[in-house]
Amino acid sequence: MKNNRLLTLVVVVVLLLAASGLAVNQAVNNMNLGLDLRGGVYVLYQAVEADDTGAVGTDRIDRAISVIRNRIDGLGVAEPVIQREGDDRIRVELAGIEDQQAAREVIGRTAMLTFVGPDGETILTGGDLRNAGVTFDERNRPAVSLEFSPEGTRKFAEATEKYLGQIIYIQLDDEVISNPEVRTIITDGNAIITNQENVEEASNLALMLRSGALPVELVELETRAVGPTLGQDSLNRSVQAGVAGLILVLVFMLVYYRVFGIIASVSLITYLALVFSLLTAINATMTLFGIAGLILSVGMAVDANVIIFERIKEEIKTGRTMRTSIEAGFDHAFSAILDANVTTLIAAAILFYFATGPVRGFAVTLSIGILASMVTAIFLTRYLLRSFNKAEILRTPQNDAAKDAGVLAGGVNFVGMRKIAFILSAVLIIVGIASMGTAGMNFGIDFTGGTNIHLNIGQDFTLEEAREVLEPLGLEGATLQQVGATGLGEGQAQELLIKAHELTPEEQDAVLAAFQEQYNITTDDYSVESVGAVVGGELTRQALIALLLASIAMIAYITLRFEYRFALSAIVALLHDALIVLAFFSVFRVEVNGPFIAAILFILGYSINDTIVIFDRVRENLKNRHKDKLTEVVNMSIRSSLRRSIITSLTTLLVLLTMYIFGGVTLQAFISALLVGVFAGTYSSIFIASPVWLSWKEAEAGKNTRTKTA
């Protein structure tokens, strides 16, 4: 019987690992890669009325999108993304395009609609067409109505008389979009194009015709272009970071937990396969920050398993068997896993709503990772634990072994250190506020507006040589930075980062041309980010709104699941963590860019996750040990959660360090914020959140005592 169970378990584990490997391989081969990994162009346009007549209408935006789509189709770009953003903006993403400069020129030029006779003579232009719409002919079939201006009416009358019985070609940007036959002479300036298959076809043709006389100007608000070489380099680095992070986490779990570690490893690999499969199923686009979110979720996915394992160990200490400890451990761990993950999911959802571009990929992978980790922990880990127990691989340990698994730091009085912790945090925050008040924050172009140009020179160079190349271009105030592998000195790194005020497309092209001439680089070795001041200001407002909404949503959920004192104490801890990270960035002059907002929201989610686990213990101990003093209840709750907090922080730090080492310059500021945030979040969950709640309760108790005495 035992051998049969063992054989069944081995078969199940092998099948799980094999299926996971196949699923990951299939997903990777079919995954859509974003611009930052594949290379391509991202442009955010704002439509502006050419004649200052007021707001841009919906119809005009639709016409602009039609023109852009028509032009991009001519470039042969596979699966372009052309979407409306808000009331007057259009987002264009062209992944994998070879000639990025040509693409931007084609998208931005003015549309040209022409009516051409069979002899090649241009009869009318879009300026002669007043309107086009959907109508029906005398047989009630879909058609397109045309209305010409007075001058257009005269020209069209002459043309229909000249080309009666012949075809007139209607071209948009030199591409024929319709070729109707002239059946009668039209002198009143109103005509219809018949033989439309359906209303949708007629509507599309009418839209393209109206687009020929587009009365809006498209202004570039934000541009990001990544050459294929730099995109491939980012992909290679992120894959290295992912593999290294996964190996480190698996090795740690195996060494620390042994048999439990085997179960956690199988669950973690299955979790990754599930995440990859879900991302492929929803046709998600994987970005560099999306991969960062995926790698980071590996460290966090361990958390649910750690909570379960530590709970099982505690149940064993009470004298239970392994089988009953597994069931009781799951029952006690479920509420902590649920509440901790829901609060983190709140932060991820708000980030997804407010984020744009590659950072949204971080929110997507993080959200899917949170949901997948809950599924694998609650169902798969439980099944494997039961199966390992039935196969007698997991046995009830002897008393000595159980004692070895005792609570970490059993005699430490964490609550007694709260005053020291409060003072330490206050000092760090005051230093940070003073730094922000005097030196300010080192805001990047996402907030201030400007242009970053990243060049892969492909050979050793010095900053002085690079400045000489740029000197004739007169880029005043531009800063240059060598980037590359960690530890390389001046003249050894082969990549250059140029930060300047907002450059026009012509100025950007001039920079590329100068370095092409000097170092023989190509557009494959070039990436550019250009953000207007308008977008930077909006990002600041969106960041504040996102943080406010995340805090309100978390307060509401924690109040619902716990009580309002827990909720407000958690927010105090979150504010503490955010201020610590801001202080670090201000004091050490680390650049604050768009992804920094994603980092702050993740930190809030991570910190609240840590805090919720301890609050869950406080809530449980208040019920089971209602006769104990509050101080002892809180101390006991922190001590019993300490091992889990340290292990989760350690696994998260392991994957963060691999991303910092392998991820390249694009991710370094982002990862720096996360590293500081993980330390701050772990610290605040132990020394700030619960002690603040305790101090509040003690203050209320003292007030009630004084009231009764009076």
Name the descriptors.
4 domains, eight-stranded antiparallel sheet, 710 residues, alpha+beta, 21 helices, Alpha-Beta Plaits, Gyrase A, domain 2
Explain what the structure shows.
With 710 residues, the chain is an alpha+beta fold. The protein has four domains: 35-110 and 218-225, Alpha-Beta Plaits, CATH 3.30.70.3400; 113-213, Gyrase A, domain 2 (2-Layer Sandwich); 227-439 and 535-709, no CATH class; 450-531, Alpha-Beta Plaits, CATH 3.30.70.3220. The protein contains 21 helices and 17 strands. The chain has an eight-stranded antiparallel beta sheet with strand order 3-4-2-12-17-14-16-15. α8 (259-281) packs across α11 (358-390) and α10 runs antiparallel to α19. The chain is elongated, with a radius of gyration of 31 Å. The N and C termini lie far apart (73 Å). The model is unreliable at 400-409 and 485-492 (pLDDT under 50).
Quick recap:
The chain has helices spanning 2-30, 35-38, 58-75, 100-108, 150-162, 199-211, 228-257, 259-281, 288-317, 322-354, 358-390, 399-404, 418-438, 445-448, 463-470, 505-519, 533-561, 564-587, 594-624, 630-662, 665-709, and strands at 32-33, 40-49, 81-85, 89-95, 113-116, 122-125, 129-136, 142-148, 169-172, 175-178, 190-193, 216-226, 285-286, 450-456, 479-483, 495-500, 526-531.
